[in-house]
Fold:
Amino acid sequence: QLVESGGGSVQPGRSLTLSCVVSGGTISRACMGWFRQAPGKERGGVAWIDTRGRGSRYVDSVKGRFTIFQDNGKNTVSLQISPLKSEDTGMYYCAYRTAYLATSCSLKAITYESWGRGTQVTVS
Structure:
């Protein structure tokens, strides 16, 4: 089970950190992705992290402003957004994929096996 938190209504230029707590599984060997669905648009990936220590990636539109990081002790993956822009408005979802030996993480939504219900971010 994945539960997101940390969303809210925030002014442009401020910062926000979203968190995703994973229960019933370990994040120590996983691909963890953050996806965003803006109003009237399809859901798309913004960042992933390979929790085995093999790195992370961001889509070009958020590079330099989004930071994804993990806390194995809390079984949590977080997404820091700074500075916020109006185009960051949307529902943010985290997703989990078990990482096996040959698994390569990506932002292909279909490869993720579990999803949270999302947390809403409104920037205005």
